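pls read this protein:
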Amino acid sequence: MTQLPDKEYDFKRIESKLSEFWKSAGIKEKILSSKRRKTFSFLEGPPTANAPPGLHHVEARVFKDLFCRYKYMNGYAVPRKGGWDCHGLPVEVQVEKQLGLNSKKEVLAYGIDKFTGNCRSDVFRFIGRWNEFTEKIAYMIDLEHPYRTLDNDYIESEWWSLKELYNKGLLFVDYKVVPYCPRCGTPLSSHEVALGYEDVTEDTVTCRFRVKGTGNEKQYFLVWTTTPWTLPSNLALAVNPDIEYSFVEHEFSKYIIAKALVPKYFPNAKITRTVLGKELLGMEYEPLFPYYIEKFKKCNEKAFIVIAADYVSTEDGTGIVHQAPAFGEDDFDTCRRAGIGFVKPVDEEGKFTSEIPDFAGMFVKDADKKIISMLENNGSLFRIEKYTHSYPFCWRCHTPLLYYARHSWFIRVSKFREKLLEENKKISWYPEHIKEGRFGNWLEGAKDWALSRSKFWGTPLPIWKCPNCKKEIVIGSIAELRKKGIKVPRKIDLHKPHIDEIKIRCECGSEMSRVPDVIDCWYDSGSASFAQFHYPFENVAKFKKRFPYDFIAEATDQTRGWFYTLHVLGVLLFNSPAYRSAVCAGLLVDENGEKMSKSKGNIIEPGEAFEKVGVDAVRLQMCYTAPGLPKRFSYNLVRENTLPFLKTLWNTYYFTAECISGTETKEFAGIFEKLFSKRASERKEGAKEAKALGLTTEDAWIISRANTASEDFTKALEHHDYNISLKVLMDFVGEDFSRWYIKIIRARAGKKDRAAAFSMLYSLDRAARLLAPLAPYISEAIYQGLLRNVTSKEESIHEAGWPIPAKELTNRKLEEMMANARRIVTAILSLRNKKNIGVRWPIRKAIVVSTDSKVKKSVLSLLGIIQKQANIKEIESASRSKLIKSTMKPEYSKLGPSFAQKTPKVIAALSKEKPHVVLSHIEKEGEFRINIDGEELSIKPEHIIVERSAEAPYLLADEQNLSVLIEPTMDDELLAEGYMRELTRRVQELRKKSGMKKSDRIKLLISSQEKAVAMLSTEELLEKLRHATGASEAEVSAGEHGNFEFTASERIRDYEFFIGISRE
């Protein structure tokens, strides 16, 4: 006997019960440790656990979880090792805030050992919250044995990789302008910079640099800049040699500016001459500020002259670019080629040094207004204006970045641009446009990776350098360090400051010290593909089996982060992409499409969401739109989109359990075992046994639909179109199973109908297995409550096999016919609705009009189902009907463009044609030919407006390739049946309110006016009433009511009715 589940969908009870079951049964451990012939390799992107998880973390984790669950159910072993990102700016900035430290100097004063100790502790401050969160959302991953980027084994693998790059000539030190965070005191890589751009509106200035050697004539170079703070460091002006520059007279002065930009600055200009930029090269000018005049008088280096630069354009500004070589990558390279000197009057905290006495000690961005004021006072300011542009901020502390010249260690990525692009072609990206778009474009501009960080908590750069002979050595393992190091402790911590205490004896006799930098934490996470295995020191075979990884998934912004660093290291170290497929999760936004942020007050905490709508509903909402698109999320959307589906599924489950409660379902186990077998012969035998149960047309249809839904769902899932998969399943459960099949078989429900029981179990099993990866809780609840040991012997649905469509029980022709039948029923119901005729009131006749032979066959084959669902006594099928009248009107908006001056004659000619003739030609041939002044013109469907109506009293509804007519007039016989159907429903509602079971038998009395009693007192109607309401005795009378346990008074159309029932 099947135990009935809770009638209402209670996600809190389900989650609590199933979580406990999974733990006690060790389901996760069994699945993760499973050994199978085939392996699907997955790599987890490591989060940092120094902050609580947010709702945005749910999305990518759902994508990863559902696809790995799916692959496991498909017969693959799917190792899923968790990981934690432990180093870098995110951790340091957080700890600095906790300790009240505001600069690198303060960290040094506090003590590196204590500071890194705090960092180590803080990394796992929220590890408990993350583990709870991971378990709550049912993300099946091994967090008991995770990889951690702070572990010595992991760092040692990174050291190996860095030595490999060094030996290949790809790891080098250089003096370059790099993006630099003055707050964190460290350079950043290009992919880190890409994570922190914000639109800002700032003051920009156009300055005039006076040309030297022009005597009394005032002649100026006009120059525009968005960074006024760099002007005190100006050493040159750059022009494009091939651009034309004009000399413009304005207010007793002459200005030199790109010719194309003259109208922007001088609308009524008088141009005295125009030259190419190359003719301006070498011209000298007077600097705006006096700070370096004396310096360059005393040295051989050049300054304050015009130099050439190909990158100068006329897209904005003046076509002349000011050069401050310490603070711009292009400036640095251009000035170095031209032999221009170098000054850097800004310290590592982003403050002006004493070289700029007017602004010494001031943060450069804060000095903008004072610099502008000084320019105005000395007559150098030509124009000031607001300008909105995208500017980089530190991705962790949100400080404006500076471009700053310094010594850094780099990885030579630019040399491999073509190789990176070539290997990218082997990766399947979802969405597909990422490959050539966001990711491909980024690879095309790949820059050398600024690897070193002048910070404290991170993987130490394994380079030791001799202060005497300048020789350097790269250490690739702990064993090598022990071999070459001086007094290396037995128990070693590879972090600062301990690693810095280890010296290496140089060949020259001096002691080599480690270069004090740590490396970019993105290198840590980018090394996960090999470092999680401690490769190449162990697990070599395991690494080679899994690399490149079959599947990874993270947020779209990781195309500038983890996706990128994984790819770079895969190509540079292993000459291969690190992964075969990548899914990009879109940005999480609120229901209005606004980005979620604390400042906007639209943040939703994950725990709150799980409490209000449940984990499964949240997971499904993340799958509701395509993975790469922004994900709108709100409680309203969940209650509108996914929660109703889960409730419908639960109601369907409850109905199925209720219907088969008296059926011995275990007898079906053998059939299911054969149907789900991998052997074709057994599946064929299973199908034969299933058919032998006496499947009706509707049974065969729902089983076939379950199979095609499985096929369509799987096809979409394989392509990572999770939203399409979900839509397929929602349609199958909501439309096919619940709203159609169950309506058809209600009369068979609860009667130990083995065919119906089998069909419902088959369909529910398919739905539950398909849903299992997306909504693990409700699918497990259905499996444990009804399907376990019937459709599968596995302990959990997540161990069960993926639903393979049974071809022997798939009938697409039947599905097509049923689709036509449903369209016919829908058309009839819409006509009923127009006339306010409820479906319980029978209609005498309907006519289905269609020239499509498949529609005719559908009517013939499924006549009984159509009649019952539409409550129609008779149905005719016809190719044509004289009851349908078509009228035709010209579509003037289309005729004019097609026929121009001939339009009036076309309209006149059409008015003389019989509509049915014109429409017949258009239907068969796609056009109607008409002769105008000896020329044949083609009338297409868009040239006419067709209006169709039915001859009274018929009503007409048009569908795509069929029309339906009904005659709504009701005679006494139809009215009597309608009243009896309405009364039957009222009795059933009274039974329900009274708490009666389906098996309870009753005595029933219906009392009303004599005319109603006379209409309803036929033996045929009374027998139907007894059968439908579970009544042993049923009487309709106009007499006394008598005494009954439960009573009700109802008004139906023209009559009042008293209903009384009592248990037998």
Remarks:
- The first helix runs from residue 11 to 25.
- The mean pLDDT is 91.
- DSSP finds 40 helices and 39 strands in the chain.
- Residues 199 and 389 are 5 Å apart (CA to CA).
